[in-house]
Amino acid sequence: HLDTARLLEQLRQLGAVGQDAVGGGRTRIALTDADKAGRDLLVAWMREAGLSVRIDRIGNILGILPGAATASGQGGLMIGSHIDTVRHAGALDGCYGVLAGLAVARAFRDAGVVPTRALVVAAFTNEEGARHQPDMMGSLVYAGGLSLQTALDAVGTDGSRLGDELARIGYAGKLAPGALVPADYLELHIEQGPVLEAEGLRIGVVESLQGISWQRITITGTANHAGTTPTRLRHDAGYAAAAVVAFLREQVVAAAPASTLATTGSLRFEPDVINVIPRKAVFTVDLRDPDEPRLRAAEARLQAFLAELAEREGVVIETERLARFEPVRFDGALVGEIEASAQRLGLSHLRMTSGAGHDAQMIARIAPAAMIFVPSRDGISHNPREHTDDDQLIEGARVLLDVVRRRLGG
Amino acid sequence: HLDTARLLEQLRQLGAVGQDAVGGGRTRIALTDADKAGRDLLVAWMREAGLSVRIDRIGNILGILPGAATASGQGGLMIGSHIDTVRHAGALDGCYGVLAGLAVARAFRDAGVVPTRALVVAAFTNEEGARHQPDMMGSLVYAGGLSLQTALDAVGTDGSRLGDELARIGYAGKLAPGALVPADYLELHIEQGPVLEAEGLRIGVVESLQGISWQRITITGTANHAGTTPTRLRHDAGYAAAAVVAFLREQVVAAAPASTLATTGSLRFEPDVINVIPRKAVFTVDLRDPDEPRLRAAEARLQAFLAELAEREGVVIETERLARFEPVRFDGALVGEIEASAQRLGLSHLRMTSGAGHDAQMIARIAPAAMIFVPSRDGISHNPREHTDDDQLIEGARVLLDVVRRRLGG
Ligand SMILES: NC(=O)NCCC(=O)O
Ligand SMILES: NC(=O)NCCC(=O)O
What we know:
Protein name (chains A, B): N-carbamoyl-L-amino-acid hydrolase
Keywords (chains A, B): Hydrolase, Metal-binding, Zinc
Oligomer: homodimer
GO molecular function (chains A, B): hydrolase activity, acting on carbon-nitrogen (but not peptide) bonds, in linear amidines; metal ion binding
Mean pLDDT of chain A: 97
Order of helices and strands of chain A: HHEEEHEHHHEHEEEHEEEEHEEHEHEH
Largest sheet of chain A: 9 strands, mixed
Binding site for Zn(2+) 2 (chains A, B): 93, 128, 382
Bound molecules: N-(aminocarbonyl)-beta-alanine
């Protein structure tokens, strides 16, 4: 039996941690004080549910319900996601998957059923990558795709070192990341996009995840007076940055509008004064495509445009890779089991691809993995208006529990 | 006799107030602590030179050398400029004109000559408009072009109220702005542009000043997930802002490249996170043209583009006027006298227009005014690399003294 009231109540409580003064959102960026408060709450809830809690050296939180065969969590079934957020976030992105995992563990405990293998509920560090890049960092380190040291040395947008922040909030654990290798991995998440709602369907059976390419671009020109500098003598870092953002939308995305996505979410000028031509512009480029060759082509077109622009405007352009993940195809057997569960529970469903990156994408490197989606109202996420109806949240958790039961008994 | 060594020494000393930790510049934004430190130094130097110092209610500093006919400064000859700076500024913009005015007053004192009318050395508040708009604020209030109350109520880019900052640094004086009406006004300034250097000339005889249009534009879209939101469903405030900046350069400026200038010096995104489509973009537009109808046409094209863009992208666009000054033609007689002085001193010269806004532009509303320029190396200003050779600085001050002598005796 799934205690759905408790699940919804915990979602509400965790969603209240780090609430913004205005706008109804919350900001629980990884390894800030608000993230620590959220972690403390989660750890308390895990203990209360009888899980043994272990923290690894990148701060991933593992709550372990021992299995008949595997007490340690080695070779267990892992249900994971994250509890960090972007700035001014909704309440569901990440938390839903972690707390549903906890609800599944509670269901086993409450029923007095010992799973055949251990059940591990994981909350991975810094999935969002809002301050320290790359995103999906905790699960990437867990899967061996990034060295612990490189991750700890990551410098954030505020100049902070990730390892220092992790130690500061008291979540630099002892366990080696990846020490417990799961035999299978499931992640339940809100879709964060418009597809399920548009199709009027209840469950997304996620069989793949698109590729993600993140860069930070720094353009250096010459600060000069806005009133006295003839246009032909300008080296305007601000205009050059704007030209890149416009190029991405009007040329790169326009060439494959149903496939390639481009976003500049962060952009800063220096000195950022009304009558001074910007000396410097620093901005991010987020490129995505489910098709790897097409993602490569978008990156190449951007690169060529930057070279041309540097020449034309007399500016220096540097690019720094912040994250690069190829598209991932999830485990066919698990995907099939999710589909069968939805079917069994009488929930309409659709095989689909994920637009967002998820920890499942990283863990798929070391274990068979798949994901379950529920609809997002108006397809909105990374926004305080992110919303999924309670009954839909419960349906997703029921599918998760059903799949787990088929694998672990109970 | 002009004490040129003292002038250069004072320029060096004032230029050291508010020095940046790196980059060799200084940041003395109006009504900050650094501005207060600069003001204190200037006031001490004025007193030391025997001037009586008066501060008006917008914080303009007036150093008065009484004349034979006019002891109070009423109907005097005013030499003015400013000592506030942009962020990471050079040492000369503004300070040169104020300190050269002080050097001229000292020359009268040292020679024991009482001018026929009072000589007033003015340092106007917030000429740069880097934090609180409009720019040329102190001289604009002085000339009656902006009410004292509106100026005091100006809210800065950091949310501060100008009047509070002014009181905080102790420069909210008692004198009504504009109480002392000058009979003539001169301003000596670095060119801040490339013309004199390119032509190999020593003195700019400034006969006009281009129009300036400043706006703040706020675009509000919808924050959403960078990976899950199809392009056709986006309301991307960041892309829309970039499209405006690109449009200004590629369409508006391109239509009259030798006349219209457009600059976006400041731009900020919200929430400014790599994988979040910006909900909001706030940026400035600085448009200039020596020709008023052409400046109006540029404003109109921008307005039309914004309307089109709002429709196309489904974003809300608000514009706020921060400053608007029509082109100004300086006093023909004064311009002629400057030209004659340069001629007499054997200095090559050119009648020219000013690209930058200056306090002279405001004071021209209440008194005959004109300006003298000296060359700027590489045409660079609003940059720590701003530079004019000492001998050129001295030549400019000599022309200023010569013009003043012709008007005030000595
Ligand atoms: N699920 C989610 O929002 N992940 C953040 C990483 C991304 O930008 O896709
Ligand atoms: N001289 C000067 O830099 N004035 C600042 C106002 C402007 O932007 O032109």
